[in-house]
Amino acid sequence: MSTPLPFPLADAPDEITLEAARKLFAGEITFVKGVVAMDGLPAADRPEMCFAGRSNVGKSSLINALTGRKALARASNTPGRTQEINYFDLAEQAFLVDLPGYGFAKAPVPVVEKWQRLLKSYLQGRVTLRRAFVLIDSRHGVKAVDEEIMKLLDTAAVTFQVVMTKADKVKEQERAKVLAQTRAALQKHPAAFPEIVLTSSEKGDGIATLRAIIRRVTLEG
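The line above is the sequence of Probable GTP-binding protein EngB; the predicted structure tokens follow.
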């Protein structure tokens, strides 16, 4: 009997769950506001899930693919352009939160430091944050800056789940190597949710599965 892999890929949900998740994301999804300080956060009156990742990992593209809106989240070819915590209302059931990219950023050092402080304050202090989705590029695996965010989430006791992006950009053999490296990294983090989601915003792979996960977390409140 083979030993199951740690941090397996999330299974595709059943048809009923997929349809319920599709309907949730077919509802009204709107941009609420961009926040530059903790006192600007919207009322903590519903569960929220945030998306964190290195600059240029594909956060905006993933959010657009999830919501089926081409320009809901503004994708940029310039790493580090997003300097706010951007809130989106998911059918009045939950907030989806696009966090500033961390790591490399084409911005003055004081600006970078300011939004990195905001990022940390949010992750440590937002009581309605139910899950963080940490995006990892399938071409590169977990980097040192990703480890920093994961350690912060461990300290804050915020459950985080790794979402591999750009899965269509790598061959299967290379993807297997990156997944092995990612699984090894995750074993050091107590806050890591024990499943990985493999996605491609361009091809649509894994998007329905991630919608179903978000719906489940929303229902759990």
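Note on the example: The CA atoms of residues 74 and 172 lie 30 Å apart. The radius of gyration is 16 Å.
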